[in-house]
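ARCHIVE RECORD
Type: protein–small molecule complex
Small molecule: 2'-O-acetyl adenosine-5-diphosphoribose
Source of inputs: curated submission
Record status: active
Notes field left blank by submitter.
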Amino acid sequence: MSERIVILTGAGVSAESGLGTFRDKDGLWTKYDLRDVATPEGFARNPAFVLEFYGARRGNAGKAKPNPAHFALAKLEKEFPGEVLIVTQNIDKLHEAAGAVNVIHMHGIMDGDLCNNCGWRGPTGAPLTVESICAACGTKGQLRPDVVWFGEMPYHMGEIGRALEACDTFVSIGTSGEVYPAAGFVAMAREVGAHTVELNLEPSSGDYMFTERYYGPASEVVPKWVDALLS
Ligand code: OAD
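STRUCTURE (tokenized, with ligand):
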């Protein structure tokens, strides 16, 4: 039986591509109240503000390039004799830009749109405003970014759960381990006896759950770990 690796990534893997993290010093949640920009209630209160916030993030993400950590994970996916699945909390598409194919976006994607009224999902290809009209149901002002907000269920949880139940190794990269359900994946992997690895700038809040740990910038620790695994 070939080995199966599930890799969870967070904002730290894209930090060196110039995309801000959330909870570090200068992180997005030190500048914005997440209740205003990352909850359904915040959107209902002030949709224009929320759409402007994500419009700016889309602009930044569009300019960002993958860094050595993204490339190393794509190389692992290509060269590892077993199966590699990347489950990312990130809404950027830098794993794919580096060449990774087996990627699940559990918190949605930056350039996706979702209609709050009829559930239509897909890119409209245009910046969203409160005047935007859903092409599927004709409702005005209910189109929003297709990203998972606090209080909403992440995408693909069934598929992720099955992958965790079957994995031999679980790796957590660049995530603070503060947000569930992703923060609970390491416990699920441990329950099935998987080997657990943490690669992060600093120990996360659940660091004790990992048997192997390497700390430093993702652009350094991730390629080093991948090369050791492939050698
Ligand atoms: P956080 O901002 O909570 O954590 C980022 C982690 O990356 C921290 O542990 C940092 O130490 C680490 N880090 C920073 N720079 C790094 C670097 N160069 N190399 C390696 N690690 C680095 O971000 P997430 O854990 O991704 O969800 O946050 C999880 C979720 O909370 C996000 O998906 C988002 C946010 O609210 C929603 O918006 C629903």
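CURATOR ANNOTATION: The mean pLDDT is 95.
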